[in-house]
Design goal:
single chain, 136 residues, mainly alpha, 2 domains, two-stranded antiparallel sheet, two-stranded antiparallel ribbon, 7% strand
Length: 136
């Protein structure tokens, strides 16, 4: 999803930079988008997109919920008896993965980071006073 509001810094562009003037322009554009409601609409669209995003298969247990690699065996994860409430939730009495907590899947990383219009306003403030931005 490409936002309509004025986010001119591409995602994950390490080494990219805005000088002080460009950062001030970005700040003005962000505040304009807050004023028109475009930023709020983007926040709503982003939340909808993230909510629909599927979980990802756990890379340590291959989605089984029980870690059977060398580390898993060393820590006796396949033999681990689950707590009663875990057993009910997971549908089994034994087997554990310390990465996905036995579920076999993890939520997509992007879901961990909410965005609000307040966040956008705070970033606009930062842009205005930063003297420029360099992405590491």
């Amino acid at each position: 999803m490409q936002p309509d509001f004025a986010c001119v810094i591409p995602y994950n562009q390490i080494g990219e930079a805005l000088d002080a003037e460009e950062a001030a322009i970005l700040s003005e554009r962000l505040y304009a988008d807050i004023g028109t409601g475009a930023a709020e609409e983007y926040v709503i669209q982003r939340r909808t997109l993230l909510k629909a995003m599927p979980d990802i298969t756990c890379h340590m247990c291959d989605g089984l919920g029980t870690r059977t690699d060398e580390v898993g065996h060393d820590l006796m994860m396949p033999e681990k008896d689950l707590e009663p409430e875990q057993a009910v939730k997971l549908g089994r009495a034994r087997g554990w993965c310390n990465v996905c907590r036995g579920h076999g899947s993890l939520f997509a990383f992007d879901k961990a980071h909410d965005l609000t219009v307040t966040d956008i306003a705070q970033f606009a403030d930062f842009c205005l006073t930063s003297g420029g931005i360099f992405l590491y």
